[in-house]
């Protein structure tokens, strides 16, 4: 039966049919799962979008929420939906960074994607992971698109990291990862990128009554930072009138990395003098602030000082 399914997937690719597949890849000592969406008649050297799910969600849920198929079919790019171990992401180490790098290699082998046009996005904890990757693999990711997620201890930008394009989407009524902290996290990268201040604000963006578009432009290397402020939207991916996936593609597709005959990735590690400020605040994995007293916590998994801690 498995051989028959694989044959159908291969035939779909060969005959130019749209292929959706659940696939696996061994990384380190783990067999990692992921889903792909590949448009029909893809062609060669097409872009790749990697979209990471939220905490306690999975790749199928993220694929359904992002609803990227119609955008990908028109623009002809591959979308990969990775699956986190235990439905979460390593937002302090390199385990899932290595997974992303191996996914890029795998998509190059299978679909001949353009390695200079790889984009990373994620929802909630996937958005936190997207910020984490900015400091780790900006030499392999052309643009970043976090959704409803940011580092709960505050964003940091390593001096050695290139200026990077970012589009962040967030609902103002988000009660899991509060909207009130979005701009101060983006400000770190706006300053790092050397973008023009203040932001250019466009209300009723694309004819909608609920989206305000914030643009910080003229950054180094021509990069921009965009915030899509979704009024009255909560902790979800909004596709109300304007699709989040469409906006991510419209922004990210403008960017590519310098051409290289043999692109390599260096996983950046912060120097001993670059430490995020956390002040001992404890967060749940979905971003709720639990104060600073670890002794009062029930058994579970928490983020303390930017690291995942099991009690």
Provide the descriptors you would attach to this structure in a database record.
311 residues; alpha/beta; ten-stranded mixed sheet; 7 helices
Structure description:
This protein has 311 residues and is an alpha/beta fold. The protein is 25% helix and 23% strand. The protein has helices at residues 2-15, 59-66, 69-75, 95-111, 125-134, 182-193, 244-252; strands at 19-27, 30-38, 48-52, 78-82, 118-123, 143-147, 166-171, 200-202, 211-216, 225-230, 282-284, 301-304, 307-310. The strands form two sheets. It has a ten-stranded mixed β-sheet with strand order 1-2-4-3-5-6-7-10-9-8, with helices on both faces. Strands 11-12-13 form a three-stranded antiparallel β-sheet, with no helix packed on it.
Quick gist of this model?
The protein is α/β, with parallel strands linked by helices. The chain is 25% helix and 23% strand.
